[in-house]
Design goal:
alpha+beta, Lambda Exonuclease, Chain A, 3 domains, five-stranded mixed beta sheet, three-stranded antiparallel beta sheet, 12 helices, binds iron/sulfur cluster
Length: 379
């Protein structure tokens, strides 16, 4: 279990269950921004430790890549605009570049650290640290805070996570005597630090272990409805939320009737479409026989009982699906203005009559075709 899982469980056990246990791996826009930012920072740090400073434009390009990948797994909340989150993330990246502009990366001991910290009673928790760097005989555990509502003055909201990460550093990093926790607030540009006491770390792991024991004994994962449900990426699968939405729709019965009629019509159209396809196949087979007969009697009209079938042989011009070359040729030769559409019957007709621009004509495929028209005879 990671701290992300624990945070999600604290907000709503049902959301935790839907995200972790079921296949509905969906991110909120806030999570998408957070993940994209951390991945960008990890990539930038990867370059910094090699001695390459990362400039703003380069960092923003990395962030755009990461965002594009992450946003595909996101479900925007009601009324949320993904671009607003993207822009907010881009501003955070600019602050990250500000934070690191005077560093050549040589102080970094590690970045994008993933580890496991054992807890009392045989439990363990996965930790993730953005950056660890050395300052004298201390290790500084740096976390970039991406939430816009968090700030240095408002206090620390992830104290247990930071303290457990500090404990991990004490046991995992050689030659470390002291640990300093550092938070860099990407929304405000503020920074906050504190030294860690052994007693605080011990209390944090004890509390966390007890909390995880409660979580593992939870078999029902109850929903915890709140105002933020409309932003929850799992709301489409959440019975609790769906019930609220259904209750608030006034014409529920009317919608049931509309859905039933839609389903009925949809099924009829599918059935009719397959029947139309079958009838077209039969008509095509009969058309071939009529055309063969008209060829044998050398007539372009075949008379039947109350029916006349006219047969006309003609050529049609098919333009390529990708019209880029056609359009640029039409523009180059000044023909574009006289045609309102490229896929235009006059252009095709000109091609057939041999009066079109030869370069355009070469792009078309000429297909011989036969048109059969039926007339009813009266009397
Ligand atoms: S919609 Fe609300 S109650 Fe349902 S899982 Fe999400 S946060 Fe929990």
């Amino acid at each position: 279990m990671s701290f992300d899982d624990i945070r999600k469980y604290r907000r709503c056990p049902r959301a935790y269950r839907l995200s972790v246990v079921s296949d509905d791996w969906r991110l909120s826009l806030s999570e998408c921004m957070d993940i994209s930012l951390r991945r960008t920072i990890a990539r930038a740090d990867g370059r910094r430790v090699l001695g390459h400073p990362v400039l703003k434009d380069e960092a923003l390009a990395m962030f755009r890549d990461e965002w594009d990948e992450c946003v595909q797994d996101s479900l925007a909340g009601d009324g949320q605009d993904p671009m607003e989150y993207f822009r907010r993330g881009a501003r955070c990246i600019e602050r990250f570049v500000e934070f690191t502009k005077n560093s050549d990366g040589s102080e970094l001991m590690s970045f994008d650290v993933r580890g496991v910290q054992n807890l009392p009673y045989g439990r363990s928790v996965r930790i993730r640290v953005d950056e660890v760097y050395r300052r004298g005989d201390s290790a500084v555990i740096c976390k970039y805070v991406t939430e816009p509502f968090e700030s240095a003055s408002a206090g620390i909201t992830d104290e247990d996570e930071s303290l457990v990460s500090a404990l991990w550093a004490v046991y995992s990093l050689p030659g470390i005597e002291r640990v300093v926790l550092q938070w860099r607030y990407l929304s405000t540009g503020e920074e906050r630090e504190c030294r860690v006491r052994k007693q605080s770390m011990d209390e944090a792991v004890e509390n966390l272990s007890r909390e995880m024991a409660d979580m593992s004994s939870d078999k029902s994962f109850p929903p915890r409805p709140s105002e933020s449900c409309s932003l929850c990426p799992h709301r489409n699968l959440c019975d609790s939320y769906q019930t609220t939405v259904s209750d608030s729709v006034p014409d529920r019965q009317e919608m049931d009737r509309v859905l039933a009629e839609y389903a009925d019509l949809d099924e009829k159209i599918v059935a009719l479409s397959s029947r139309v396809e079958m009838l077209k196949g039969r008509r095509e087979a009969l058309k071939e026989r009529i055309v063969a007969y008209s060829d044998s009697v050398r007539r372009d009209a075949v008379y039947g009982d109350g029916v006349v079938v006219d047969i006309r042989r003609y050529k049609r011009a098919e333009l390529p699906k990708d019209k880029t070359a056609v359009i640029s040729r039409l523009k180059e030769t000044g023909q574009y203005g006289s045609l309102s559409m490229v896929n235009y019957s006059r252009l095709r007709s000109d091609i057939i009559r041999g009066v079109a621009d030869p370069e355009i004509a070469k792009m078309a495929t000429i297909i011989p075709d036969i048109r059969v028209r039926v007339r009813r005879r009266s009397g």
